[in-house]
Amino acid sequence: MNSNRRGQLRRAAPIMIMVAALAAPMTVPRLAFAKPGDRHPAGDTLPGSKAARAASQEFIDDAAASNRAEIQTAQFVLQRTRNEALKHFAQKIVHDHSQALSQLGQLAGDEGLELRPGVSSKAAEALDQLKQAHGSTLDSEFLHNQQQDHAEAVAKFRQAQNSTALLAGVRDYARKTLPVLQEHLRMAQQLVATGAKGTHAAR
Predict the structure, then answer these.
(1) What percent of the chain has pLDDT over 70?
(2) Pairwise CA distance, residues 9 & 91, whole Å
(3) What is the spatial distance between Cα 200 and Cα 142, in angstroms, rounded to a whole number?
(4) For range 58-79, the mean pLDDT
(5) Domain spans of the chain, in order of start
(6) CA 54, 56, 62 angle in degrees (round to 5)?
(7) What average pLDDT score do residues 19-32 get?
(8) Phi-psi domain of 32 (left: phi exceeds 0; alpha: psi -120 through 50; beta: other)
(9) Rounded to an integer, what is the distance from CA 79 to the centroid of its chain?
(10) Nearest Cα to Cα of residue 65 among 155, 126, 22, 9
(11) Any idea which fold 49-198 has?
């Protein structure tokens, strides 16, 4: 092969390679895009989500038990006290905590968590003790428990509303429920301050 022929082949080689590359089918990596409404499996959303779900379940358990305890206690007091101010307060407790419990159930369902039944042993013991009281003693013990329970609840919910250890939905629930708990605490304190606890006449 003469030198002119070899030179022509060398010049044509890059063009032939380029043509072959363009003719070959292109393989593009597939990219997965989330569709609107897609949800990750429970406990497999983001790093640390398992811990967040566990902490959120614990919060829901505690909040549900507290709501039930408040409802049961207030319903009992409604049956026993003749103090009209206390009756009004107890009715509000039943209404607000029933609503909070319902919202908690909706939250648990939305997050794939559980709304477990029951109250704490501490709350059950407190109600048993209250059932032994009568008259002004009943009223006083009820208000004392309300102040103590709601002061603790306000502290827990205030912390929960800003806790990144909890799921966003749980933080939102805590933030929306906190003003209700604060109002209950204020009402209990006001009833004590105005001497409502001393008004007796229980059935």
Answers:
(1) 73
(2) 98
(3) 13
(4) 98
(5) 49-198
(6) 105
(7) 39
(8) beta
(9) 32
(10) 126
(11) Ferritin (1.20.1260)
